[in-house]
Amino acid sequence: MTKDNVRSQIIEAAKKRFSHFGYGKTTMAEIAADCSMSPGNLYRFFPGKLDIAEAIASEDYERHLVSMHKLAIAPGRDARQRLHDLLFEELRRTYHKLEKDPRALEMANVIAHERPEFANWMLANERKILIELLDETERRGEFAPENKEETAEMIQSATMKFRYPQLWSRLTLPKLERELEGVLKLMVEGLCPNARANAAAAAHAAQ
Question: Model pTM?
Answer without folding.
Answer: 0.80
